[in-house]
Amino acid sequence: MDKLIIDGGYRLKGEVTISGAKNSVLPILAATLLTDEPCIIRAVPNLRDTHTMIKLLHSLGKSVDFDKDTIRITSTHKANYVADYKLVSTMRASFCVLGPLVAKLKQAKVSLPGGCVIGVRPVDLHLKGISALGAKISIEAGYVVAKVDGFLKGKCIYLGGVFGSSVLATANVMMAASLAKGKTIIESAACEPEIVDLAEFLNKMGAHIRGAGTPYIEIEGVKALKGTEHKVIPDRIEAGTFIIASLITQGDILIKNVIAQHQSALLDKLKEAGVNLIVKDNTIRVKSPNKPLKPINVTTLPYPGFPTDMQAQMMALLSVTPGISVITEKVYPDRFMHVPELNRMGAHIQREGPHAIIEGVKRLSGAPVMASDLRASACLVLAGLVAKGRTSVSRIYHLERGYENLDEKLRNLGAKVVKEKE
Ligand code: UD1
Q: Are strands 297-299 and 324-328 parallel, antiparallel or unpaired?
């Protein structure tokens, strides 16, 4: 296992280019199961999660070639409909092969993903949607077994849950409905940009999807889908993480390959804190103001609200922002594993249920800390960049699930970060 050693206190300066979006590429790769024809996906980030999805596609009968940032997928003769526990338990996004498999092969056996460190993550909405399309679903020995006689049939499906919409349930149902007979309407659909990207990919394959990016998606099923080419959108969470990295180190960086419109909630909150970023074409310049930031209150919500995937990174910034800030987590109310680790670095954060009350401190101090999940790891790296002294972040395989070459990109901006064996 590797760890990151960070010597804090260096201002970031220079340019960084954002990679393709993890949360786009994973469902898009799953969608290639809907066709026997070849597909080419470009701007693919080289991540642990990408490799997990490639392994899963292999096991389901696809031949996958990953060269630089391009993936070429072709079909072998032996399509398989069983998604193994080992692959699904390491990455929840694997569960979105359920919709494509049942639509294309009329049956699927997909392992239930199991527990997750950021809290309970049920799949009831996925199952509700797929069964509404006519699949018979049972749970057998930890697997979801779905079968359909003949074709899936279009239906009007309300997909809202206790915590609002679900990104991957929307993806699963949208993919399955693309090959269903008749029209499907998804109400309370997730509006995330990654859903729009997936819909664009499916439409290039010949699907008829309208309304992606709104809570009301219409899908007119087609008989078959064809192969296509697609370039995935930039990763808005990676871009957001670099925005915070610049601010927390009082730096000045230019972020390239970013869609500012996908960052509205983050940019709005930063404006409230006293930061004005310069957006031009597909770049954002993050020049830190000369005075301290103001404390703010942040509530995470489904898109276009403030993303839960930026909550931990924002907490790192607020922990060194003078005054009292409050973060309320409304998507995963238990997603606070980074709080005790930040406190070990000298932060003053108190958790009360879904709220974290943050009293900004003058400085953090470097410490050995442990990453518990992907975004918590990013938060600890950000804290390490500003902390006095040395921070070592262990278990960085979490980081490698979702950030492409984070240490190298930070080094290029002047951070003192090295990867070491534990
Ligand atoms: C996706 C993202 C993840 C992000 C999350 C929320 C991918 C690969 N992952 O995960 O990075 O943190 O969106 O923005 O895109 N829920 C249910 N029943 C379900 C499904 C979800 O109650 O069947 C709940 C969840 O527990 C959570 C909320 O709905 O409270 C949102 O989760 P969801 O949007 O489904 O997250 P994912 O799609 O798994």
A: parallel
- Using CA atoms, how far apart are residues 308 and 362, in angstroms rounded to an integer? 26
Q: How many CB atoms lie within 10 A of CB 290?
A: 6
Neighbours of 323 (CB within 10 A): 13
Instruction: Compute the distance from residue 122 Cα to the ligand 1 centre, in Å.
Output: 9
**Cis amide linkage into residue 354, ω under 30° from 0:** no
2-18+234-421, CATH topology level: UDP-n-acetylglucosamine1-carboxyvinyl-transferase; Chain (3.65.10)
Amino acid type, 311: Q
Distance from C-alpha of 134 to C-alpha of 233, rounded to nearest angstrom: 32
DSSP state, residue 217: E
Cβ 236 under 6 angstroms from ligand 1: no
pLDDT, position 115 = 55
Place of tokens 């930039």: 234
| Ligand 1 pocket, mutate which of 198, 331, 374, 399 (most atoms under 8 A from CB) | 331
pLDDT at 371: 83
What's the pLDDT score for residue 119? 65
